Predict the structure of LUD domain-containing protein.
Amino acid sequence: MTAREEILAAVRGALRDADRAEAEVARGYRAAAVGDVELFAERVVDYRASLTRCTAAETPAAIRSALGPARNVLVPEGFPYDIGVAPSPADPTEFDAVVTTAALGIATTGTLVLDHGPGQGRRALSLVPDVHVCVLREDRVVAGVPEAVAALDPARPQTWISGPSATSDIELTRVEGVHGPRTLHVVVVADSPDVKVG
């Protein structure tokens, strides 16, 4: 038996003898609350992203407004809102902007999580164009990172986005748009039709 095999055998023996019930750590995770959407919105703005709050009916207009002067807009397959642009599988380097949905938003960090399902496209789509407009329903906001990890499929690719792409590597000067979109605009869609664009 090699030294490696001896160590692994000792570890297996110790784990077998351990009381698994005592080894479990109680986690105080909680479900997202109404205030979590407010916190998410606050943190998104803290990260220098733009934010629009709207109802489902107002979403197409909010997206078009967020796109501003962008002329070539990339829309991935499965995007659920009609903004007058047909979905395109084309090369993302040919586009000024991309619109996607997000799988989740994390309140405590202001992070968007894309799992590249319908309406999100492949990872490059959200990283190459200079403008990213990301649409998130309020009911997809979770309180924290542990809740997000528990809700996501670990077998799916994921992109976690906290604000526009930025770096301060060179002489501690902030430069935006180096590793992804220079502009991030988050459109949060209310569950209630009574919430207006804010």
Q: What stands out?
A: The chain has one domain: 31-189. The mean pLDDT is 84. The radius of gyration is 21 Å.
